[in-house]
Design brief:
heterodimer; A: mainly alpha; MetI-like fold; two-stranded antiparallel ribbon; globular; B: alpha/beta; 6-stranded mixed sheet; 4-stranded antiparallel sheet; 10 strands
């Protein structure tokens, strides 16, 4: 077998594997779009559910999901990036740091319902936040922290040391160096982590079940201390708990959930590109 | 006038004795070249003068480094303030991922200078001193990385000069540059020595011979010989120096 053939063979296998990943995803997307697009109307998006959720819109759930995403990012991003900065720039490289790193990695593998129970115990009951957007956001923050920390850590580590040295040699302090040089250079990578986190948080059901989600609450939440309907949970309910639910509403809801996540992805990507361009400038 | 006085300096990386009893006087407005084979400690030595070795864990330093009348390893010394007095240029050009202007203004900004006209003035003066002003004056807001390697290195020199240091440390500043860019940097160094004490690490003996007033020859963490460059190169006192500069090893 010639070298050329081997290379072609390997390339083909890799291409096939990639296809195996992309095609089902594309299929799911197209299926949801194809079946859901007919349901989308102003009334569906901006209306409240009526007649046992079989008619009307899903606006309260859209607002619920958006509040949760924003809340989650507000808590998880500063905490996660801060942890990553500490681990990379300040912590001594010893056994303890390694253990912490390993623990964070393990947290990423904890089932989300466990986070839900943790959130119920800590935020809802012990701290008395009740079943609320605040409790839900904090619980989801814990859930996505490992993702944010790990991707921020990788992004900060990948900033070449020559930049840190240049900054320090100019008489900048360590914090100035991190804030002015390292973080801007690491920002695209950090935002990539945030995007992954948003996706995870928006689709999560088990973790919010016990901490924020309302089964049926056909009005908008009036504060972060209020319960809320949430798209993912709503989708779960109408798909499995409500008999006689029209398929169109299920598919429409799924499509809206995709759309909401898409909006946040888009916003994050714009910020990411802005930083990338700024880094080149 | 003496600018930096180093006496009985010893440096250890954990168990490794990297610098052994180094004593050296650095004159103001002169170029001092540090030559020697790779791993002989000349870069490590250079980095003791602006305390860049502080960044590495497990380094132990003994001895005295005096910047004029200040013991720079005294525990009361503000390291950031010291590094403003002792600027540094690195082996590989390392401009920040910012515009040409922001690269030069970076140091002064950290120092607390905010006024636009003041910064403009510093940027222009520094770029002129580093002999790159004419090439960049109409594109100060362009990315520093859009410059050629040699221009980037002169930008890095301008960035160091913006702090108005007294001493300029250069760690093989032309190692990654082509001969023409190298020539321009060497010319620049000859200009700059009118105002600064310059210490340059170089692998090129021709370079040391061309631009330096004094030369110190390092070998295995020790200074074997130091003196006027002319004398070190024409009438070396130590056999090892002679072997090195005639190219018998290194």
């Amino acid at each position: 077998m010639g070298k050329k053939f081997k290379e072609k063979f390997a390339f083909t296998i890799l291409a096939l594997i990639t296809m195996c990943v992309i095609i089902p995803a594309l299929f799911i997307f197209s299926y949801i779009i194809y079946n859901g697009i007919g349901t989308i109307s102003l009334e569906f998006i901006f209306g409240s559910p009526t007649k046992g959720m079989t008619e009307g819109g899903i606006f309260p759930a859209i607002i619920g999901t958006m509040s949760l995403i924003v809340g989650t990012i507000v808590f998880a991003l500063p905490l996660g990036v801060g942890t990553a900065i500490y681990l990379v720039e300040y912590a001594k490289k010893n056994v303890l740091t390694k253990l912490i790193s390993l623990a964070i990695l393990n947290l990423a593998g904890v089932p989300s319902v466990v986070y839900g129970l943790f959130g119920l115990g800590l935020f809802v009951l012990l701290l008395g936040f009740g079943s609320s957007i605040l409790s839900g956001s904090l619980t989801l923050s814990c859930l996505i922290l490992p993702i944010i920390i790990k991707s921020s850590e990788a992004a900060i580590k990948s900033v070449p040391n020559i930049y840190r040295e240049a900054s320090l040699a100019l008489g900048a302090t360590k914090w100035q160096t991190i804030y002015k040089i390292v973080l801007p250079a690491a920002m695209p990578g950090i935002i990539t982590g945030a995007i992954l986190g948003i996706g995870r948080a928006a689709g999560e059901t088990a973790a919010i079940l016990l901490t924020v989600a309302a089964f049926f609450l056909p009005r908008l939440p009036d504060s972060i201390m209020d319960q809320a309907m949430v798209l993912s949970y709503h989708l779960y309910i109408i798909s499995s708990q409500v008999p006689g639910m029209p398929d169109a509403i299920k598919n429409g809801t799924a499509l809206v959930l995709l759309g909401v996540v898409g909006i946040f992805f888009f916003a994050a990507t714009v910020i990411r590109i802005k930083y990338k361009l700024a880094n080149r400038a | 006038m003496l600018k930096v006085t180093i006496s009985d300096l010893n440096l250890y990386y954990e168990e490794f004795h990297a610098l052994k009893n180094i004593s050296l006087d650095i004159e103001d407005k002169e170029v001092t070249a540090l030559i020697g084979p790779s791993g002989c400690g000349k870069s490590t030595f250079l980095r003791t003068i602006n305390r860049m070795n502080d960044l590495i864990d497990d380094v132990k330093i003994e001895g005295l480094v005096m910047l004029e009348d200040q013991d720079i390893y005294n525990k009361d010394v503000d390291v950031a303030a010291l590094r403003r007095r002792v600027g540094m240029v690195f082996q590989k050009p390392n401009p920040f991922l910012k515009s040409i202007y922001e690269n030069v203004a970076y140091g002064p900004r950290r120092y607390g200078i905010k006024a636009k006209n003041q910064l403009d003035e510093i940027v222009e003066r520094s770029l002129k001193k580093a002999a790159i002003w004419e090439e960049v004056e109409d594109r100060l807001n362009k990315p520093a990385l859009s410059l050629s390697g040699g221009q980037q290195q002169r930008l890095c020199i301008a960035r160091a000069l913006a702090m108005e240091p007294e001493v300029l440390l250069m760690d093989e500043p032309t190692a990654s540059l082509d001969p023409i860019a190298t020539g321009r940097i060497e010319e620049l160094i000859s200009q700059l020595k009118k105002d600064y004490a310059i210490i340059i690490v170089t692998h090129s003996m021709q370079q040391a011979a061309r631009i330096s007033d004094k030369t110190a020859f390092f070998l295995m963490g020790e200074i074997v010989e130091t003196g006027k460059t002319k004398e070190v190169f024409t009438t070396p006192k130590d056999k090892r120096t002679e072997d090195y500069i005639t190219g018998r090893f290194g």
